UniProtKB/TrEMBL annotation, chain B:
<dbReference type="Pfam" id="PF00528">
    <property type="entry name" value="BPD_transp_1"/>
</dbReference>
<dbReference type="InterPro" id="IPR010065">
    <property type="entry name" value="AA_ABC_transptr_permease_3TM"/>
</dbReference>
<feature type="transmembrane region" description="Helical">
    <location>
        <begin position="20"/>
        <end position="41"/>
    </location>
</feature>
<keyword id="KW-0472">Membrane</keyword>
<protein>
    <submittedName>
        <fullName>Amino acid ABC transporter permease</fullName>
    </submittedName>
</protein>
<dbReference type="GO" id="GO:0006865">
    <property type="term" value="P:amino acid transport"/>
</dbReference>
<feature type="transmembrane region" description="Helical">
    <location>
        <begin position="184"/>
        <end position="204"/>
    </location>
</feature>
<feature type="transmembrane region" description="Helical">
    <location>
        <begin position="142"/>
        <end position="164"/>
    </location>
</feature>
<dbReference type="InterPro" id="IPR035906">
    <property type="entry name" value="MetI-like_sf"/>
</dbReference>
<keyword id="KW-0813">Transport</keyword>
<keyword id="KW-1133">Transmembrane helix</keyword>
<dbReference type="GO" id="GO:0043190">
    <property type="term" value="C:ATP-binding cassette (ABC) transporter complex"/>
</dbReference>
<feature type="transmembrane region" description="Helical">
    <location>
        <begin position="86"/>
        <end position="105"/>
    </location>
</feature>
<keyword id="KW-0614">Plasmid</keyword>
<feature type="transmembrane region" description="Helical">
    <location>
        <begin position="53"/>
        <end position="74"/>
    </location>
</feature>
<dbReference type="InterPro" id="IPR043429">
    <property type="entry name" value="ArtM/GltK/GlnP/TcyL/YhdX-like"/>
</dbReference>
<comment type="similarity">
    <text>Belongs to the binding-protein-dependent transport system permease family. HisMQ subfamily.</text>
</comment>
Length: 224, 217
């Protein structure tokens, strides 16, 4: 092995890399927020909608979960323009991520809704609470507590899989790395550093989410 | 030169399925072998071994698979090896799968009640026998549904090998699309082919999980 490492190319384009990392974070947070809205609507539709609605939502979930993210991106980025809808790579990336995470989050949220025991709701109603109050005081917090860990790990998976959108040259971290790589040829050094950045981002977010969990949900429940 | 999408293009896509399946199979066998070691290391009594396995899992679960593939691909060149995309994809996916399977199986090993460990060691079984005759046979039953579920994940992951230039189903789709310029049709067919591979496994996994949930209720 007679290879000399040279990180000069990486150091020279440091702020470009940070820009890419920032877009990765923005894309991930944006996609997660929009994906959650999609997921809440779909979860409600799936638990209490009419049959055809349920059927469509189920089909959406199964299709997204059983096909690769990369193919979904290609369908959106290359497919939609043939129907006359032109998208920038960044917007196509965002849409693909929302469609993808929406399907996974639907199942998580549905599980959260179903985890609330019927008796709790009935008890609330029997005590004279109105449905909205039941939701506010009885349902929402334990439901959030149940789905929180799954949703946060889904966010981190989403952030890591967003590297795939570099295949359509959105300007996120991996694309930035590809650009620097093709100009300087220091592929290995750049990908090591970028992998490190992803690792740091993932660890930062897990620590942040764990902190929020402690603040918001650290009370004892005995539901066993 | 744009050509029409014909039966030949469809056959080309269909034949690329075998490469997706072959890559998935290799990554699964490799990932299962290394993953078992990782799972055993994660449940080991020796702290250093446990920490090393935890670090391995964190590293592979905390970074994108695409980066791992790039690093294997370019890293081999750095070390003076000339890895073709096929070997790089197989190696990268194996490492990645082993971290995920290791973590899934750790949970399954730990799901075996502690009393079983104690009983086995009270009977005089040492670690290899204890694992082989008492713990693993019970853990395997718990492990089957999530492992089948992970296979779906793995088949989908092989699509990333397209980015480092290995011609499996997704790459075949790109090639056909470049020639015919019918993205909806081409990637639609590609998506359907993936779906046909993954959906039965998803259903099987869900069914096994329900059966297991009934059995332990």
């Amino acid at each position: 092995m007679n290879y000399t490492f040279d990180f000069k190319a990486v150091i020279d384009s440091w702020d470009y890399l940070l820009q890419g990392a920032w877009l990765t974070v923005q894309l991930s947070i944006g996609a997660m927020v929009l994906g959650l809205i999609v997921a809440i609507l779909c979860a409600l539709g799936k638990t209490s909608g009419p049959k055809p609605v349920r059927w469509i939502i189920n089909a959406y979930i199964e299709v997204v979960r059983n096909t690769p993210f990369l193919v979904q991106i290609f369908l959106i980025f290359f497919g939609l323009p043939t129907m006359g809808i032109r998208l920038s790579p960044d917007l196509a990336a965002l849409i693909a991520m929302v469609v993808n995470v929406g399907a996974y989050a639907t199942e998580i949220i549905r599980a959260g809704i179903e985890s609330i025991q019927k008796g709790q709701i009935e008890a609330g109603l029997a005590l004279g609470l109105r449905p909205l109050q039941v939701f506010r005081y009885i349902v929402i917090k334990p439901a959030l507590r149940t789905v929180y860990p799954a949703l946060t790990s889904q966010f981190i998976l989403l952030m890591l899989s967003s590297s795939v959108v570099s295949a359509i040259s959105a300007d996120e971290l991996t694309s930035v790395a590809n650009n620097i790589q093709s100009q300087t040829f220091r592929s290995f050094e750049i990908y090591i550093v970028v992998t490190g950045i992803y690792l740091v981002l993932a660890m930062m977010f897990s620590a942040l989410f764990a902190g929020i969990y402690k603040l918001a949900f650290a009370y004892d429940t005995d539901r066993r | 030169m744009i050509r029409a999408f014909s039966y030949n293009e469809f056959l080309f896509l269909l034949s690329a399925v075998q490469w997706t399946l072959a890559l998935s199979a290799i990554a699964f066998v490799g990932g299962a072998t290394v993953g078992l070691v990782i799972a055993l290391a994660r449940t080991s009594d020796i702290k250093a071994v446990r920490l090393a396995a935890t670090g391995y899992i964190q590293l592979f679960q905390g970074t994108p698979l695409l980066m791992q593939l790039f690093l294997v691909f370019f890293g081999a060149t750095v070390m003076g090896l000339d890895l073709n995309p096929w070997a790089a994809a197989a190696l990268g996916l194996t490492l990645n799968a082993s971290a995920f399977l290791g973590e899934i199986w750790r949970g399954c090993i730990q799901a075996v009640p502690r009393g079983q460990w104690e009983a086995a060691s009270a009977l005089g079984l040492r670690y290899p026998g204890l694992m082989r005759y008492v713990i693993l046979p019970q853990a395997v039953k718990v492990a089957v549904p999530p492992t089948v579920g992970f296979l779906v994940q793995l088949i989908k992951s092989t699509s990333l090998a397209a980015i480092i230039g290995f011609t499996e189903l997704t790459r075949a789709g790109q090639i056909v699309n470049n020639a015919t310029f019918q993205p909806f049709l081409v990637f639609g067919i590609v998506a359907v082919l993936y779906f046909l591979m993954c959906w039965p496994l998803s259903l099987l996994s869900a069914r096994l999980e329900r059966r297991y949930a009934l059995a332990t209720r």
